[in-house]
Structure formats: C-alpha cells, structure tokens
TrEMBL record:
The keyword Hydrolase applies. GO terms for molecular function: 3D-(3,5/4)-trihydroxycyclohexane-1,2-dione hydrolase activity; acetolactate synthase activity; flavin adenine dinucleotide binding; magnesium ion binding; thiamine pyrophosphate binding. The gene is iolD. Belongs to the TPP enzyme family. GO terms for cellular component: acetolactate synthase complex. InterPro entries: DHS-like_NAD/FAD-binding_dom, Myo_inos_IolD, THDP-binding, Thiamin_PyroP_enz_cen_dom, Thiamin_PyroP_enz_TPP-bd_dom, TPP_enz, TPP_enzyme_TPP-bd. This is 3D-(3,5/4)-trihydroxycyclohexane-1,2-dione acylhydrolase (Decyclizing).
Amino acid sequence: MNTVRLTMAQALVRYLCNQFTEVDGKREPLFPGVFAIFGHGNVTCLSEALEAVQDVLPTWRGQNEQSMALAAIGFAKATRRRQIMVATASIGPGALNMVTAAGVAHTNRLPVLLLAGDTFVNRRPDPVMQQVEHFGNPTVTVNDAFKAVTRYWDRITHPEQIISSLPQAVAVMLDPADCGPAFIGLPQDVQEIAWDYPESFFEPTLHRSPRQRPDRGSLEQAVKTLKRAKRPLIISGGGARYSGAQDQLAAFAEKHGIPLCETIAGKGTVTHDHPAHVGPIGIVGSTSANAMAADADVILAVGTRLMDFTTGSWTAFSPDAKFVAINAARFDAHKHQAVAVVGDALESITELEEAIGDYKASAEWTEKGRAEFAKWNSALDGYQKPTNAAIPTYAQVVGVVNEKAGERDLLITAAGGLPGEVMKNWRVKAPNTFDCEFGFSCMGYEIAAGWGAAMADPSRTPIVMIGDGTYMMMNSDVYSTVLSGHKMILIVCDNGGYAVINRLQNAKGTPGFNNLLKDCRVKEPFAVDFAKHAEAMGALTRHVESLADLGAAVEWAKSTDRTTVLTIVSDAFTWTPGDAWWDVGVPQVSARKEVNAAAEDQQKGRKRQRVGV
C-alpha cells in the first residue's frame, strides 16, 4: 500500500480538495470554499494546511463565526444542497458562536461542514485558554454542545480516525433523508500529528446525492387515496426544490387540475402566475391557499415537514382530510397518519404520474382555486398600492422592490415582520429565486446568507430585505461582501424596533413593552443612520423617503459595482392581513382583562386543532 506522510490537518484538507460533485452536468468541487476565523485552536495547524491549497480551496475570512456558518448555509440553499461550504473556528467562544448556525442548518435540513479546534487529548497543558472544565467528566468540552444541533458529530482523537470519519460526514450531508450539518472537533495536539495515510484515501471522488425510489406498495396506496379525492390539494415544500422536482411537480399539478400551494421553504417551486398556483399556505400565507386547504379532502404534501406555520398549528385542514406525504425522510413522511411515501420527490412524482393515469380533479375544484387566487391577487394590488401616508407599509415597500427585481434576482429574508410580508406580497418571477429562512427563524441569517448566495452564483444579485432589529443584531458581513467583492442589495426597513413581536404581544393583551425602542428602558428613543453606518463599512448607500424614491434607488443599486444598502422608514403597525390561527402560550390568569380575553380565545382555537403526531 502506497502511503503519504501528512499531519492530520493536512490530510483532512487534502481529502476535502479531492471531493467532487455534479452540478447541471458539470463536475464541480463538492467543497468549493472555507469560511474561517483563526484562533489558537486552528491557526497553527489547520491554517497551515489551508494556506498551501488556497488556489484550489479558497479561504474567506468572516467577521463573526456565527455569520460565517450562516453564509455557508445561504450558499447551500442557493445551490440547492449540491455543494457544501466549510466553516472553521478556534475553540471556546469561537466554536460556540457556530452553534446557532448549526441549529439553522439542522432545522432546515441543509448541509454545512463545521470544523472547530478542541482541547488537548493528552490533557498535559489543561486547562488551556478558553477551556470549560467539567469536574466530573474531563472528556466534555464546549464542542459537545453541537450534538443537539448536528446530524453527524465526531471528535478526532487519533489521526487515523479521519479515514473513517470524513466519508461518513460527507454521506450524511449528501443524503436527502439525513441531510444536515456535520461537526468534527479537532483537538490541537492531534492536528499536528503526522501519519502515514494511504494514497487511495485522497483519490478524486465524484459524489452524487442518492435518489431513493418509493416503495411500490406505498405508492399504490397513495394512488388509491388520490384517485378517491374530489378536492385534492398539493403542498410543495423545500424538499421539492432541493430534489429538483419543481418542473415535474408543476406539470403534474397542471395536468391533473390539482391546486398547488407552497410552504415558506417551498415558495419558488413555481412562478406566481403558474396555472395551478393558489398562493402560500398557513399563518403567513394567503387567504386563497388557506380557503382551499380548509375544503380539501386529500392533501399531497411533497417535501415538507409540516411545521405549525404551514398547518396553522393544525387548524388549517378539515378533521376528515387525508394526507399523502412524499418525503425522503421517514420521520417527516409518517406525520399525522399520512399515507407515507418515503422517497425522493423527483422520483416519487415521476412514478406517481405514471401510476395515476388520466385522473383529474373536478373542473369546479380547479376553477375554485383560480377564483380564490384571483381574489387574493386583487387584494395584494390594494395592499401594495401607494397612498398619501407619510410612512409606507411593508406591503408597499415589498411591492416596489418586487417590481424592480430582475427575473433571476434572489430574494432573501428571515425572522421578523418581513417573512409574512414577502410570503404574501412577493410574486415569484422564476423558480428558485426566494429564500426565507423561517424553519429556525434566525435573526442575523439574512446578510450572511446574501454573502453566501452571491458567492454561490455570481450571475445573479441577492436582494436582502431586513428590519432595523436584524441589522443591529448582525451587520458585519456588509463589510465581508465589500472585502470579498460579492455584491448584494440590502434593503433596511426601519420601523423602530422589534415591531412584529410587539404586534403579537399586543394581540395577546400585553401593552407595548421592551420591543419597540419607544417602549424600552432608554433615556430617549433615537434613530440610527443605517446608511451612514453601512457606508462606513465600504458599501454604497442611499436613504430614501418615499416609495417613488425607493423604486429609483433600487434601479440605481442594480447598476452599482458593490454591495449597496438602501434604507427607508416603514410602518410598525400596518400588516398584510392573514387568516390562519397560531397556537402560542397565553397566561391563563392575569390582572389584565385583555390577557384573560386572549387566553379564552386561545382555548377556543385549540378546540379546532387536528389530533395527530
């Protein structure tokens, strides 16, 4: 056996450099880059290995470990899980900063490889700087925190272990059923050890994500259930997009006259004006999709984990409705007594099409979907129409940006008030041009994801929409994009604090408290000049006062040569209406009559919930 002597860190990096994947018929690196902040836990060994291959495996320096890992997740979303970025940090706080991002990737079933330094296996210098000691268990380090939010976790305590560990990590990240973040802890003394690695370990390897075909018996049961349906409805989730099944699912819905709605992760499966489309479903969804869900007798759920924002906390459907769930993950497919079709979305829809024959939903049901969607579009026109109000609403701002966006421009947002507003008001012009991270609802995802998405596809411009609260929480990657030359357009809607959670607080009977700046313990409310702040980080900026100015500013931003930030004051109290119910905890007893009334309403809502698992 031919061997090559390398340190563990060098061998790890060489392995990553020799993994490939196929993207649109072209051979591409499986790991196209590394986001890194170096500290004593990864700078002397891992950085030495990365420096030597920087022309093959480029390293990008972020400003915060959490945002680096979020950028890697934004990259994974933009490539629809076909390529994987690496994020590496030192030990202690640097490593722990990536835990939140791991939660985002785990919840959303997205791949990212997280590498963190670790304490010494030999324990000779213990306790080292930034080590958190556990008196009763010296094997525990802060990296054990990743176990709760990763699909694969390992700590390398001997250099030979990467020979078995790295292929397993890759397999997990590429498996549609298990897809999620992989974490590998790299103790400092093990990184430095030289070992005679077999050369075969570094042979170039081309990976393809497996496509599991559905079980024939399950598919037959699904076909029988669908053929009995008089009022079927398709819910398209993120898994449909990641599988590349959007064209087949769109054609299936149109051919068989089945109305199609989308989850938050699934928005962008079809264009807004697709003949079968009836809008987004759920709490931040449309009246049209929710009306269809309430009357549907069979729901075909494709690639969705059916979170509460999709199901209206399981009040959106008739108690008698049947579910057919197509999902690569067995856990998701078997929820709520569904007819479970465990398999890849593309393969499953293809085989379902072959098996279902000439079945077609009734013309009355298909037409009802179109009529409901027409009413919804008319309502959107009204919400987005400019008025003489001094401060524009989110709907109006989103409408202007949507109008000016190019067909392939990617819209990115996450937590706060914007997810509901873009879900309702953003009319998708081309498939796979919408990214709203709401599985983990992670404030701070947006700007970092814009950096990753711009890196993933330089041919299109990410348009990132955030509120002032998110900007204040994590804005440093504005600077990262300027440094690296990856352009985004950032729209900052300043509504004076955490407006959407203030809305929920008020709706459940508590007056404004600690959410809007004016309701916080501050000497006086004041405004941040976000344009000047972003300008100080090297971005081009413009503050606009009106919707007309915003439209002109977006057109200007599309012509610039670097990240461009536009800011506008927006209304904190006007929201696009919704009609789905949400289950949240409300105090059963309170001195406030408004809280007691809200608690009573909450109990009434719970009586409508569908019982399931």
